Fold these 2 entries.
Entry 1:
Amino acid sequence: MPAVTETIDTVQSVTESQYKWGFSTDIEMDMAPKGLNEDIVRFISAKKNEPQWLLDWRLRAFAAWQAMEEPRWAMVSFPPIDYQDAYYYAAPKQKVAPKSLDEVDPELLRTYEKLGIPLKEQAVLAGVEGAGESPAIAVDAVFDSVSVATTFKDRLEKEGIIFCPISEAVQNHPELVQRYLGTVVPQSDNYFAALNSAVFTDGSFVYIPKGVRCPMELSTYFRINAKSTGQFERTLIIADERSQVSYLEGCTAPMRDENQLHAAVVELVALEDATIKYSTVQNWYPGDAEGRGGIYNFVTKRAACRGARSKVSWTQVETGSAITWKYPSCILQGEDSVGEFYSVAITNNRQQADTGTKMIHLGARTKSTIVSKGISAGRGQNTYRGLVRIGPKASGARNFTQCDSLLIGDQCGAHTVPYIENRNMTAKVEHEATTSRIAEDQLFYCRQRGLTQEEAVGLIVNGFCREVLKELPMEFAVEAQKLLQISLEGSVG
Amino acid sequence: MNEMSPTALTGAPLGADSFLHRYEGLRQRLPGARLPWVAALRERAAESFRAKGFPTRRDEAWKYTDLAPLLALGFAEPLSSVDDDAALPPSQGGAARAVFVDGRFRADLSALDDLPYRVGSVAEALPRLDGALGRLAQPSEQPLAALNAMLFEDGLVVRVPPGVAGGVLELVSMASGGERPTALHPRHLIRIEDGASLTLIETTTGPEGARYLQAPVFEIEVAEGGRLNHARLQTESRAAFNLSTVYAAVAGGGTYDSFVLNAGGRLVRNEIHTALQGPKAACHLNGAQLLADGQHADTTTVIDHAAPDCPSRQTYKTVLAGRSRGVFQGKIHVHQIAQRTDGYQMNQALLLSPEAEVDSKPQLEIYADDVKCSHGATVGALDADQLFYLRARGIPAEAARRMLVRAFLQEAVEAVEDPAIQAALDRTLQAWWQAEDREAA
């Protein structure tokens, strides 16, 4: 190929490939009327055939939300959101509920195939063959407001594990849902959590019984498809005594020039000796280079380590969304419980991120580790905001925090806002933060060995993020590394 | 509600109202009342303070410091009762000394003869200070700047001419105390011209047990290549409040160094805003706080890197005993133009008591890419291994503890080269231990 054509092709592929999940699926939808009021809350509850207690719960949340004001303290800026100008319920039309995957709308299956999500109980995620022998992954696929398919349910049931859409759990396991829903993130916890509590439509429910080690990775894949909708999913994971589970979450959305709101709530409960590993690769549509469109990702994620020696580990790779605003947190109640937070957040073009964690140490000898890597490029603004609080009873508690920021280009910003509150003299808290750019000598070293500028930056960024990426399950680690590369395209040179 | 509140008893207004009330009563008698620009400045400040009042914990910058104990009091005009220099703190070894009692300059207690620079009282110099006073401290932005602009009664004004080495100048600000709580609002203006230098040793103090508020505002300008070394010894009464705010603007190649030693006061806040405005401007902010039962101390710093190639260094250490609370908030703001910034900040707290609390918020806000910025924060108790090591060598437990606390503070003090300040620190530390021993006994 002549050099010129090759160059043109390369340039084209770079500019076009930036968000390859940006297509939309043409599918007949069942929508609620636009706007938000008590009737919409009742409509959603009725659609889901919910019991009275849940409707009442939603209405209380809605009342609380109406009395609240949208918070503005984060280092993100966005025009006022018109909460009446969106649909709060959008579900692909289906005549009857599908009994098996074969009955699911083929258009939907094709969509997930295109996204590389295995709804056909195949062994591996598309695109990572060659990554070695991978274990099976059970997937719950949430399309706009509803869950469209959950795989490997039967096999999981044999172990006593419940993995299903939360709407189904409300029907089949109401006692579990009622017992735990809202106990980690109360309805009126914050503005977006209250909104979610009022209008949440679906999400995943996981229960791992006592002593069971979940035999495969569980995964939920969120897809926003419809226009002018928001996605408000609710995830509840309960790991009973001595159980273990690893859960993955992925998400994408079509390219549209409007901003769409994603306000999810995730609640994790770890009882005595239980371990939950929660990994996220967040790849919502980030908007175009000029900052048009993209998802507002305003999410509340919190884990309660209730039992002694319980452990929750959050790992997140945040590459998408116009604005990311979330703080996956751990309440360390149980003695010797452990909280971990590993995060990579990238902002390119005009993306904004204000993310971090809260580690609330209540029990004795609780331990937490925070490793956060922020990368800013283009005109991106990236903020780490975190809280480490040691309560008076948390004797012997221990925290270590490391926040590193990398700046690529002189139009972006990197900010660090840690809060440290210690009320126990036997606790030990350490915090370190650094901000720098990619060292010239590292770049020179790579270039000298024949790497292009972009490859060199990719390599160095991957090295910078290694500590976090190694926490991800294999399949996600591969995907995350590719994503980092794509997210930074066009930011160099 | 509290039916026996002091208002009900005395009829005097409390909190913010007591200050506004004083302003209304004093406005015709405060210095500069006849100067239109001063009157306008005070009026603007009063308007802002009337609207906003004192900050509350809902203000992010005051998240950890609650002014409620201050607001529960009503403050009155001080009636100075210091007649000779017997009550003054000991000299720090400087030849020149400016003394302010209850916020007013006392020529009779000061020694300011034959100095190679101009120094005097703000109240006297006011007609010449149009444009200089209020340039850095904007009442609209900071409630404490507004409070001070509204009520400042006097202060130190210094200008060190280009190239002059000013030596050591002592500034003493003393409250005389009294039956009713009193409030002082000094406004100090310091200008170091091109290539000039000065060491300013500031002592703020008052009689033990006295209830008063010292709320000074410093406006400091360091011109190109100038250098100000600002050492501050705060030994307030354990019933007193100190809310001090420093605004320092440093031009290219200039340096502002600050060291604060705080060992007193019921509630103390040291707020320092430094703007590095020219290439290679530098600042070093260090501090040590020794807190005992019932004390609250807050150090809040903002370093604004507004020019390239500027280094900034901060080391703050806090030792907490009894039921005390230490707060540190430090922000490094790097503007886009400030390439090759080198910012470092370390904040450490040592807890000696199970009832002490430490809150720390180090913060980086960075808009330039070619920078090296880092901060670190640690909170913990004395290291058991270190104690064991010293004990194993026959050092008694108490002496070992003291040795380790002194070593912990050393890093913040090292930057202060002046032996007078080092000696002052050791004196203060010793007094603090003695007070601790008394409390323990």
Note: Chain A touches chain B through 34 residues (CB under 8 Å).
Entry 2:
Amino acid sequence: MKKSVYKSAMSRVKTSEDFQEATYQKLLSEMANKPQTNTIDQKERVIMEKAKRRTVTGWTVGIAACAVLSVSLFAMNQQSPAVPNTPPTNVAAKPPIMGKVAVNIDGVISEVSADGKSFKVGNLWVEVTDQTQLGSKEPTAAKPSEDLLQKNFQVGNIVSGYTSQDVNTGKVTADVIYNNIAPQKDEAAKPPVSGKAAVNIDGTITEVSPDGKSFKVGDLWVTVTPDTQLGIKGPTAAAPSEELLQKEFKVGNIVSGFTTEDVSTGKVNATNIYNNMAPQQ
Amino acid sequence: MYNSYELNESVRRALDLYSQSLIKVAFTYLKNIADAEEVTQEVFLAYLQKRPVFENNEHEKAWLIRTTINKSKNMLKTGWFKSRNPVPEDLSYLPKEENEVLQAVLALDKKYRIPIHLHYYEGYSIQEIAVIMQSKPATVGTWLARGRLILKEKIGGLDNEEICL
């Protein structure tokens, strides 16, 4: 083979006559399409950015809602009344205090029928028949007692019950009467039974200082100063007594109180000492 | 939107100058003119998109040939190219001797085909072929020698040819 033969042969190989023109047109069309492609990219980018923004907004709102809920729960816990510590065994022995029943008869009896089997609560006349169940038979209900469920319906009694009938008719037959409580005559004389006090010193004294003015509760040393307020002076507080607030702090005594200082330091001055009770023999 | 005036002048010039050479390189690789033209179009498209900067015309041509070889290799690797069974390119219109020589070269393994083509058609030296093929000159020399030997066995030529290293 001679070099010229191969070159000649390859030179004679036919190619498309309009190759250059066709290629030129293709390049033109490719360049023409390029800006459109960019436009599409920009549109897609805008759409993606919107989608991302929605996602971010959704997450932000969700996290904010969670934060608000957390703060609310925390605040509610802070406001809840201080409950004195009780041994865990007592808690286990107590029956559950939660429970609910349907009630659509509730209020104070304003009128009682002559036969005593019907009474009026608000605008509703309620008839008690032999079929009416008296007292709650729910498993968590309190035991029936004369105080909670009196036999006679009298004006002034507080009743609660349930009827499956339409209370809008103005007259129904009670299916259940849960309570029929006579009004307490000496209510005004009794103090309210609820109240709360801040407590962050609470427990049994394990150690007392030689001067008797400091004691140890758990890991916390508490010093009683002349500024320490002894006893509870709230309007709902029980009357001070030697039994609830002994003068001397002794090992084994159960104390409760409050300090404005940081209890995590391990040593504080008591602002209040509510109780200092000797252990029950 | 672009128009013809905005089409890069260098691309137009390269199209005029090198399109036939590139088609022939691709044809040597693919053994089919239609495929070769398609690959060549892709090469010019890449040229237009990348707009490489060249030191001189030879550098430009070498880049185009290198790109043509790469795109031809890519086409050979594609599934549809492997799966098809194309009709051999009709070269019967060539004179008998030229047809035989061309068929003999196309029958060579591609690693011998391309150096033979670049040397005997484009006139590149071994060093230049080595640069284009990104190989060592000695390797290119070996490919050329083996290719020529095979061709000699087939068609008995190349007695008076010399390869200048």
Note: Chain B touches chain A through 47 residues (CB under 8 Å).
